[in-house]
Amino acid sequence: MSTPGRPANGAPYCAVLTGGGGGIGAAIARAIAPQCAVLLLVGRDAARLAATAQAVERPGLDCRFVLADLTTAAGRDAVVHAASGLDVNLLINNAGTSEFAWFADQSEAAVERILDVNALAPMLLTQRLLPQLQRRKGATIVNVGSIFGYLGYPGCASYSASKFALRGFTEALRRELADGPVRVLYFAPRATLTALNDDALTALNAELGTAMDAPAKVAGELVALLRRPVRERLLGMPEKLFARVNQVLPGLVDSGLRKQLDTIRRFARRGEPRRTQPATSIRTAEGGSP
User: Backbone phi, then psi, for 232, in 5-degree steps?
Assistant: First the structure.
């Protein structure tokens, strides 16, 4: 009889995947399931999590899910409790939220929510699960960020800040753990076709001719990262190039975005100012990043 995390099928991963019920999250679950002995899905929507679990069901896979709001201590406690005894060796911090809005128009609640979900929650969950990961001979943390974690974009000031923070955390933690068994990777999709995207942002991308990837393509790239680990994996051209140029010659990117600023502002400021809307108006997905 197999023990939790070490079943007879020999699959390499006992994984925790946050945002497991959303667009990118569900696609990641389907993509990594064949390599998993245990897959623990985390999210806030029971129906979506159950649907993902059913979609990935296969012989030899123990797929479970736990309802948890990771911005709360109780939610993180629930994940740690569910993961106890599973011998976790893969943590994918994928859950995210976003709002496309001019910063001056955003409510304080929206700004706080974006930073809590995208930066603070994965940091604190990682801290809680780190002892389990460090007990394995080899383990991996993948933080799902965004191209906007390299490239500050108008209308996405709060979102970019959260993904810059997640990238900084990933880099610092990778260096802290460099002499141990846990590797820490940053995965940066470009615009992706998920419910996370504001309708105005999707319309802006269409007007500017910005490509948007399907969740299945993004998930496939994450599987490729697991097979051939590198510190950071950025998706898409020319976004990947712009991100790198921004690190060494930010003035060039400033000039390029300045030419698009009127168009970006027109889409970001559609309708009433966001600060008059309730916090629940922001787009929250079970997982994924634009």
Answer: -140, 140
- Per-residue pLDDT band at 5 (split at 50, 70, 90): very low
Residue 75: how many CA atoms within 13 Å on its side-chain side? 16
Q: Give the orientation angle of helix 23-32 with respect to helix 215-227, to 10 degrees.
A: 40
Single out the catalytic residue among 150, 153, 159, 186.
159
DSSP string for residues in 160-216: HHHHHHHHHHHHHHHHHTTTSSEEEEEEE--SB-STTS-HHHHHHHHHHT---B-HH
Kindly report, residue by residue over 38-69, the tens digit of the pLDDT.
999 999 999 999 999 999 999 999 999 999 99
232, 188 in Cβ contact below 8 A?
Answer: yes
Q: Residue 284: is its pLDDT beyond 90?
A: no
Catalytic (active site) residue 159:
yes
Residues 6+ apart with CB under 8 A from 128: 76, 79, 80
Please give the residue that has the higher pLDDT: either 34 or 3: 34
